[in-house]
Amino acid sequence: MLRIKPAIIVIGLALFAGAGRAEVTEEINGHGSIDWSDRTVRAVGISVSGGAGGRAGQIRAAELDALRQILETVNGIRLSSETTVEEFMLSSDRIRTRIEGVARNFRRVGDPVYQPDGSIELTVEMDLTGPDRFLDAVLPSAGERAKPLYDTAPPGSGVYTGLIVDARGLGVRPAIAPRIHDEQGRVIYGDRYVDRDWAVRHGMAGYAKDPVEARADERIAPNPLVIKANRATGANRADVVISNEDARLLHAVEKHLTFLQQCRVIFLVD
Fold first, then answer.
1. What is the count of structural domains for the chain?
2. Are 184 and 121 in the same domain?
3. For the whole model, what pTM was predicted?
4. CA distance 209 to 37
5. From CA 31, how far away is CA 45, in angstroms rounded?
6. Which residues form the domain of 38?
């Protein structure tokens, strides 16, 4: 029988992880896209030929169009399994103003592209995570932290460093603030279980397509718990339901609640 040393496996995983991830990306409303793997929004601004200010004026016009495209893209992002960002902004002019302000912090990607017809295309990106960034504007303020729902772990339970939720095949859609429920509908993981500063800096959850890459992700390495979701739930299909036994395993071990607070959660999606 062929025996492979653990050290070789570790090196192989590290090399594989560095070779390029299978990114979880999504086109939003035909205006731009979001990369859920690295939590960035990308859009392209276009300016037509002519107009005042020459080429500099054209580039400025392309930047303004890029801002419009970024905002339209952000509007279509799922905030939760029930709400989009656009619906959330309708609740408050203050929230809308803050999100629009954050969107102005985009950065250029590469050089302007000059088309044969005289138009200019400008690709821009906006980070979702980080202080004074998008998540800081949309995540709820820190409140009273929810308490564990279970006090007895299943027999033989181990201690893990993070959580991988295998939601492949269920039609789960990424969201800013996904939740995990037990079979009774109680929230096992959500904004009331996280430290807000961690969520702002790293997002409430990561998304991946490849289980090997997910296991090697520093977010949940070196010893993640892997559980299978039973089904997707919510109008936006961003939340998942897990078994009560898995819910007990998460909530009855104090160190598991710590990694939930630190958002050490990855969803495997199609």
1. 2
2. no
3. 0.88
4. 9
5. 10
6. 22-138
